[in-house]
């Protein structure tokens, strides 16, 4: 079967919509972004997942306010998604952009109006993409358990903590 859509993009959509595994979304789309010469639209999609990861898994403390990290990532994603040509991605980009804008607005009011994390759904509009996502989702198992915490990398672990 010939694929019109890159398997990494298909995996991203499965992890994003089916599994809500935003860490894996980052992993697969970063690989595609690098393969596509750092095309901004892929970075924007990657940043939507990272922003949701920050908010869902974050805490707000004096060391790092992950709500602010989520806002920063989501705003950065908007700049890339609104400026990019995305007619060949097979998704409702305008709806995604609107959903991200709404999320940012709610996060900016979070201290006055707290809310629980909720996912964003990426609406697949292209019938071929929808078919490829459905077929691939039967073969692509979810990563269980989901990575929901933060881990310092090996280089950071070598740094002195005092």
- Count the beta strands: 0
N- to C-terminal separation?
56 Å
SSE run? HHHHHHH
Mean pLDDT: 85
Pfam families: DUF309
Protein name: DUF309 domain-containing protein
Organism: Paenibacillus wenxiniae
Key phrases:
single chain; 162 residues; mainly alpha; 7 helices; globular
SSE topology:
Layout: H1 7-19, H2 22-35, H3 40-57, H4 66-83, H5 93-108, H6 127-139, H7 154-158
Helix pairs in contact: 1-2, 1-6, 2-3, 3-4, 4-5
Protein name: DUF309 domain-containing protein
Write a short abstract of this structure.
This protein is mainly α.
Describe the protein in words.
This protein is an all-alpha fold. It is 60% helix and 0% strand. The chain has seven helices and no strands. The radius of gyration is 16 Å and the shape is globular.
């Amino acid at each position: 079967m010939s694929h019109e859509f890159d398997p990494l993009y298909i995996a991203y959509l499965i992890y994003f919509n089916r599994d809500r595994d935003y860490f894996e979304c980052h992993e697969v789309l970063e690989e595609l972004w690098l393969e596509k010469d750092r095309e901004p639209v892929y970075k924007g999609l990657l940043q939507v997942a990272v922003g949701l990861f920050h908010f869902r898994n974050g805490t707000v403390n004096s060391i790092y306010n992950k709500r602010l990290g989520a806002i920063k990532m989501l705003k950065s994603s908007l700049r890339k998604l609104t400026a990019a040509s995305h007619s060949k991605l097979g998704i409702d980009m305008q709806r995604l952009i609107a959903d991200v804008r709404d999320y940012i607005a709610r996060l900016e009011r979070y201290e006055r109006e707290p809310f629980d994390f909720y996912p964003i759904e990426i609406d697949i509009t292209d019938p071929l993409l929808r078919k490829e996502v459905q077929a691939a989702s039967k073969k692509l198992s979810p990563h269980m358990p989901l990575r929901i915490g933060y881990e310092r990398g090996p280089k950071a672990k070598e740094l002195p903590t005092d």
